[in-house]
Design goal:
This protein has 185 residues and is of the alpha+beta class. It has two domains: 62 residues, no CATH class; 116 residues, no CATH class. It has four helices and six strands, in the order αααββββββα. The protein has a six-stranded antiparallel sheet. A hairpin with a 3-residue loop joins strand 2 and strand 3. The longest helix has 15 residues. The termini are far apart.
Length: 185
């Protein structure tokens, strides 16, 4: 019964769409499975690095964050906002639940990694360009941590991406990152 309600809802939305929106619906239907798979990959970050670095941190968003680190490492990244590649991250940071200091940068990259420079002390501001939830290089709302000495590993989940993944099954793309057929032309 629930499946029929979903099917009827989707068909109703498709017939109520304007002609400009109907081509959007064709994209959504044709690329439904690939977009759900990509959204599933977006839900986490996994980075592995090596270099003269020491770090340990736990994060329940940038607001509830504790730990610190200093040094430089070359990282193999599967990062936030579909960043894949290699990058050099360097600098130092420390935080104790809301109060922090962060002077880090990703200043050399290969692949689809975004360069950034983060410099602040005090309270991390979610309005910073680095934390833009659609295009930013870092996720303000990330939950996870990193640990390492010479060899490091970062693992985070992204709550906004989980919501985007769940709503994607209803053809709702809050991040605006679903593929369309024009991306392949």
């Amino acid at each position: 019964m629930k499946k029929w309600i979903l099917v009827l809802s989707v068909v109703g939305c498709m017939f109520s769409a304007t002609p400009a929106q109907s081509s959007d619906w064709v994209d959504r239907v044709v690329l439904y499975i690939p977009n759900r798979l990509i959204d599933a990959l977006d839900m986490f970050t996994l980075n592995l690095g090596a270099g003269p670095v020491v770090e340990a941190q736990l994060m329940g968003t940038r607001l509830v964050w504790g730990g610190g680190g200093i040094g430089m490492s070359y990282k193999l990244c599967k990062a936030y906002n579909r960043q894949y590649g290699v990058g050099r991250e360097q600098g130092y940071y420390w935080s104790l639940v809301g109060v922090s200091e962060d002077y880090t940068s990703m200043d050399w990259t290969l692949g689809w990694m975004k360069k950034y420079k983060e410099m602040y002390s005090g309270f991390p501001n979610p309005a910073q360009r680095t934390y833009n939830w659609r295009t930013g290089a870092r996720d303000y709302w990330a939950i996870g941590g990193s640990l390492g000495c010479l060899i490091t590993g970062d693992l985070y989940i992204h709550p906004v991406e989980w919501v985007d993944f769940g709503l994607g099954f209803l053809f709702i793309d809050i991040k605006g990152d679903d593929l369309v057929l024009d991306d392949f032309r």
